[in-house]
């Protein structure tokens, strides 16, 4: 595709497969077009590897953090389960929300928690909110251990941010969806991979091998889950779509 931004004429022109679309540069549609390319270029530049939360690196796009904060503040879960710990920044972020809400605790699962990351998480002032499990998220022992940490009647939110291959995410969805309480979500993050297959750091097979595909397959055979972006709690614009690394991620239990 060719995109031409003309700041003299205030137009954005998309040329794709012999078709031409001319948009007003300041329109909602132009914002969507620019945002899509911004996400692709930013991902390739590792923009998401430039943030930290209260001292720990967090590998996320800030809008995704704001959006999940909206969900957490609305749902006020008792337990937040996250697969994929890395440096621990996302765990600390969720823990800081639990502290602010005076509600909730976190279970973080990673196949390998490097000693310096574990030490930093365990020494953090918010460590008391976090239980770490070091094992594959889909190992039966892990799934049993996590289930044992949830008490009957507790509200549970699950975030899948570990191995992003379609098969692994499908395995995680099968393993953890049963813990999600009605009205809450299981979030298959980083589905943006489908739109990164052709960027320099991407891989061609990501077009179909990605978390959004897993979420779509899972939703098709689980009518108790619907795929839908959580509502924005504040919106004085005409915009309605997240600018995100997590498209097609949010499975809400009905
Ligand atoms: C994208 S990082 C997590 C980022 C973190 N949630 C954040 O926001 O900063 C992915 C993590 O998944 C872990 N991982 C990979 N395969 C896994 C598996 N089978 N089970 C659990 N964790 C896995 C990796 O070790 C890595 O730390």
Task: Please give a structural write-up.
It is a single chain. With 254 residues, the chain is an alpha/beta fold. It folds into two domains: 2-44, no CATH class; 51-253, Vaccinia Virus protein VP39 (Rossmann fold, 3-Layer(aba) Sandwich). The protein is 33% helix and 22% strand. It contains seven helices and twelve strands. A seven-stranded mixed β-sheet has the order 8-7-6-9-10-12-11, with helices on both faces. A three-stranded antiparallel β-sheet has the order 1-2-3, with no helix packed on it. The longest helix has 17 residues, at 28-44. The protein is globular and about 60 Å long. The structure holds S-adenosylmethionine. S-adenosylmethionine binds next to helix 3 and strand 7.
Compact description:
Helices cover 33% and strands 22% of the residues. With 254 residues, the protein is an alpha/beta fold.
Topology of this structure?
Blueprint: E1 2-6, E2 11-16, E3 19-24, H1 28-44, E4 51-53, E5 56-58, H2 62-75, E6 79-83, H3 89-101, E7 105-110, H4 115-123, E8 130-134, H5 140-148, E9 156-160, H6 166-176, E10 185-188, H7 211-221, E11 225-227, E12 250-253
Parallel strand pairs: 6-7, 6-9, 7-8, 9-10
Antiparallel strand pairs: 1-2, 2-3, 4-5, 10-12, 11-12
Nearest-angstrom radius of gyration?
19 Å
Strand content: 15-25%
Please indicate the count of domains: 2
Global outline: globular
Task: Give the class from helix and strand content and strand pairing.
Answer: alpha/beta
Bound molecules: S-adenosylmethionine
Distance linking N and C termini? 39 Å
What is the ordering of alpha helices and beta strands? EEEHEEHEHEHEHEHEHEE
State the helix count: 7
Query: Based on DSSP secondary structure assignment, what is the total number of beta strands?
Result: 12
CATH class of the largest domain: Alpha Beta
| Overall pLDDT confidence | 98
Low-confidence parts, pLDDT < 50 over ≥5 residues? Answer: none
Largest sheet: 7 strands, mixed
Stated plainly, the CATH topology of the largest domain is called Rossmann fold
Helical residue percent band: 25-40%
In order across it, which strands form the biggest sheet? Answer: 8-7-6-9-10-12-11
